[in-house]
Amino acid sequence: MPEEPENEQVEQQPQEPEAVPEANGEKDPWSDPAAARKEIEKLRREAASQRTKVRELEPLAAKAKELEDAQKTEAERLAEQLTAERERATSATRAAVAAKVEALAAKTFADPTDAVGALNPTDYVDGSGAIDTDRITADLADLLQRKPHWAKTPEGPRRPAPDLTQGSSGNGNRTPNSPAQEFAGFMERALKGR
After folding, report:
1. pLDDT tens across 104-163, in order?
2. Which of 3, 8, 22, 178, CA to CA, is 20 to 30 A from 47?
3. Whole-angstrom Cα distance, residue 41 to residue 142?
4. Is this structure's pTM higher than 0.70?
5. What CA–CA distance (Å, rounded) separates 179 from 163?
6. Helix H segments across the chain?
7. What is the pLDDT of residues 144-154, one digit of tens each?
8. SS3 159
9. Residue 129 — left, alpha, or beta (φ > 0 → left; ψ -120 to 50 → alpha)?
């Protein structure tokens, strides 16, 4: 097996930054701290002047946008208005269907909002915008068959019933007594132990 040469540790001497060659006959400002500070200040002034120009041009850009909007054809403006109105109508229709579903579900559902979340409002509106209540009623009945735990209970909300077999009297060692009998037993035991 050939011998591996031992790694010689060579002490590295700190290298001085190489001087950047002069470009266009100018000296590199970053090699001298004082010159670097001057260059930084110069760049800061330039950036501030650019920010000022941007602030001055923003109102002009807004005016250009207004002019562009003014130059749109009447058809383009009407198309944008039509799109916005359709979105509003769709939103209003969904709200109306959700309200109708909730009203119909209030009769049979413990929480009618469960039905609103489970059904898709767009399925119950025809082309003229009328709400199909018969279909909503049928789908609510189907939903209750699939999720019977959502149904309203006839006696109202469930209330906890006390269980008299729980606690210390439920272990079978004591018979239930009235408070007067318990006090009499306590007094009898106290007098005998005297």
Report:
1. 888 888 888 888 888 888 788 887 778 888 888 898 889 888 888 888 877 656 677 777
2. 22
3. 75
4. no
5. 19
6. 33-71, 74-105, 112-118, 133-146, 179-192
7. 888 888 888 77
8. coil
9. left
